[in-house]
Amino acid sequence: MDIFAHWLWVYAAFHKKKYAKMAAFFGVLPDLLSFGLFFVVMLFTGGLDFSRRGPPPLDAIPGWVFSSYNWTHSLVIFSAAFILLCLILKKFYWPLLGWAIHILIDIPTHTSRFFPTPFLWPLSSYSYSGISWAAGWFMMLNYSLLVLAYVYIAFSGSVPNLAKARVSSFRPIYVHGKVPAIPVWSNPLASFAGKVEWAHLRLLTYIRDRAAFSRKFKKRGKGHNNDGSIGTGKPEDNKPKKRILTKKRKDSIKAKGV
Q: Is the alpha carbon torsion for 16, 18, 19, 21 positive or negative?
């Protein structure tokens, strides 16, 4: 598969992670270390033929490109490098999985005619002859799926946790006596969907909290008095209550009056 599609697919796979860009870099590194270096060498030596369409003939490609391709497109080499790096860092280095995704994508998208993926090298020279990623219909299908994937990411991933947010994370309208500000998203594609979801969750919050409030005081047989205090709600509760003075308080009042 072409290098741009590799970057986009790997980034889409890790778009929710902080290391998404690093994983995408490892997702294109195998091609950069083989065809990328070959392109740079041919560019400076004047060996590029821009009038020619399609891949260059195999006999025009030096042997070191094939060797580099074997090293960078082998799941065996990837596994050894991943284990070694984990032992050195003493933790899993997940961005390196972009390398494995690159190899897995290349296995069915390369034919035996031009650089089949040697994913078992050096244990075996077996390779699978799949579909050529350079075919016109496959390129259209591939990038159409990428467009759908990134539209989905724009509508779901850019709205910060609204799809998975709990209703209790939004405060009810009556708590502060004012309507909370509507969140603003930088992505215009996600703005409308985000506002609809925010309004829906806010409504559910209000209904839930009001129902819980009613059940709580109905169970205790309590309500609100006219002065705003919590009581039985009966008229006699609205009358001023007599203040009960203790003996110590009475002695204090008599002492002040003397």
A: positive
